[in-house]
Amino acid sequence: MSNVYFANLIDMDAQTYYDSLIAQGYQAHDAQSYTQQHYPDFAGPAMAAAPAMAPAPAMQVSAPAGDMMMAQPSAYGTLPVPEEAKKRMIAPWVAVGVIVLSLVMPYISFMGFTVSGFEMIGYMGDLGEAAGEDGGDADDMGDLGLIGIAIMLGMFSPVVYLLFAIISGVLLLLKKHPLIVGILHLVYFGLFMVCSVASSESFEGISIAVHDFAGIGFYMGSLAGIGLCLKV
Length: 232
Description:
two-stranded antiparallel sheet; elongated
């Protein structure tokens, strides 16, 4: 590439540079932002701008393999994608890992008796068969009101959390943030806590609620929803 080409780039005025970005397919607000980085006095596109010039060849700074994000334009080539854009998916990935890890830890814990999340998932099939043979059990659970809802939410939490983790992982692989999944995750946990606290009972001066039987794995998996919502 000749020195004349570099001289032309350096001598390019702000409006011409802005028009070249528009011709390359950049949105107007992005083109204005990038232009102002190299031409601080550029106030915005002229009301009657000249026809956009044909895109000029530019030096490309090689990006790491797998990085498909558009690089920031420059009068001297293209700049690499800011590190902040690459790091905003770290917290959701950590949250997915915490959810999976929580499933090997106790979701039910009472006086030394513990049941892990994966064990509870294994019991789901047996519970489904039992409910099919005796429909009265499901009716009795519904008659318990809020405490019945809290118990059901706690029982199905390992399955729901694992499903949320899988969906979040797929979205992250597609370079999309799982914010909506994180919100649903926290809503599920919040609904459980509301029903549990509202249905607590007092026995001999001691308040007992469903969440008192939840293990550390349940709380780890539940609070991991916060990480799914973070963009760091």
